[in-house]
What we know:
By secondary structure, the chain is of the alpha/beta class. It has a single domain, classed as Protocatechuate 4,5-dioxygenase, Chain B. It has helices at residues 14-21, 31-34, 37-47, 98-110, 125-134, 159-174, 204-216, 218-222, 226-233, 240-249; strands spanning 3-10, 51-56, 71-74, 78-79, 94-95, 116-118, 144-149, 181-187, 253-265, 268-278. It has an eight-stranded mixed sheet with strand order 6-3-7-2-8-1-10-9, with helices on both faces. Helix 1 (14-21) crosses helix 5 (125-134), helix 4 packs across helix 6 (159-174) and helix 6 (159-174) runs parallel beside helix 10 (240-249). The longest helix has 16 residues, at 159-174. The two termini are 12 Å apart. Bound molecules: 3,4-dihydroxybenzoic acid and fe (iii) ion. 3,4-dihydroxybenzoic acid is lined by residues 12-15, 59, 188, 192, 194, 236, 266-268. 3,4-dihydroxybenzoic acid (DHB) binds next to helix 1.
Amino acid sequence: MARIVGGLTTSHIPAIGGAIAKKLFEDPYWKPFFDAYPKARNWLDAVKPDAAIVIYNDHGLNFFLDKMPTFAIGAADQYRNEDEGWGIPKLPPFKGDAKLSWHIIESLVAEEFDICHCQDMLVDHGFAVPMQLFWPQDPTAIPTVPVCINTVQHPMPSPMRCFKLGRAIGRAIESYPEDLKVVVVGTGGMSHQLDGTRAGFINKAFDLMCLDKIVDEPETLAKMSSLDLVREAGAQGAEFILWLAMRGALTGRVRKVHSNYHIPISNTGAGMLVLENAA
Ligand code: DHB
Ligand code: FE
């Protein structure tokens, strides 16, 4: 049977893709950010997951405001990246695992989560940047299942709904008959607001509280409303629901392996977390 080995989270800011392309790892602005990732990499090297569920949000590349699914899951063996206009290089296609995707989709729909399933799906920086951070040698080698949650157009799913989706994803993985080690990645966050009168808003105290509580008390965070999250973390800080979906999927004993927080990266409180999940 498949087994969930842990969860990873990281902010997915497009500027990170630019910094990777320019190899700015030792640059004083970037160093405190990039220095955290080898520790996640060491954990991945020890655990050696066979597949990654990547919970992210699309920012207008594959879904636009005219058609916005709440939950969309890729069901393909390959996912293409495209130019989003941020000036970051386009990456080669990412690998999918359509069989695992369909198992998760079937299981979620049986649990009354109505999923938009996508046999052709472009993946944007919300997916691609975390893959580059956690799998720097070859971000396109590990088979993935992209799980896309709407965080860009209201109404968004509530934090609790996303946490429960994560729970259901966890049960789906554990019922998969193949002996796969699966890691669950949640991307985005932490606090940021890119537009409006609060543009540039970052809430360090709130981010650090979330980074702490998501380890052992995720339900407390999941009880927030979407509006609470926008108020505390900014309009785009609502991406934290993706972290809650990741945390929901960890169904066993959860242990924090590593975390990092650094502000600002671009307009964002940049957070990273590695959680191990024991059966
Ligand atoms: C930024 C952060 C994001 O999450 C995003 O999707 C785009 C830009 C930023 O801080 O620049
Ligand atoms: Fe984003």
